[in-house]
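Lecture 7 notes: from sequence to structure.

We start with a single chain of 180 residues. Read the sequence below before looking at the structure.
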Amino acid sequence: MTDRTTDTDGGLLERHTTGEDRVRMVARQLSEPQTANWIATEAEWSHEPTKRVLLRLVDDGVLRQDTSGSHTTYYPDYRQQAMQEAMRLRDGNHTAEELTERITDMKDQIRAWEIEFDAQSPNQLRATVADDGLTPEEEAQRREIARNWEHLQRRIQIVGFAVREWDFLTPETERAEASN
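Now the structure, written as tokens:
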């Protein structure tokens, strides 16, 4: 018997996860609000059970629900995700100084893009796609850089929070050991 690591023949993923597991995985990876139908399709599960799982995730504070539009959408609670990521950074194998260096590196990259493209924000960079004379590859590159720029801005906020709240984010076991 061979070790299969891909989802061939339509089923390795399905054989190792339940529909609820797949909905939870899809929901936690959302980068923009999506409908229950979209999530159900991505999770390869039917609409009604998907909706029940999504409502439980909303009740648990994992997801947010927006009913203001024509369709109800779901998206991650970005505050909870940011807090969990800050705790992972604090609990990881990094020092506050190493994380501070990461912030500097990310800010340096953003400054380089600002200079290279004469843009002060990701949306200003996106607007340059309308410039005449750009090849399709250059347009795609600018869109990708704009997405990376936004990602780095979010990372700077989260890593900065982890550094700022370093002591507060200390695991209880470390606090107990330090007080003994």
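The chain is about 65% helix and 5% strand. Keep this in mind for problem set 3.
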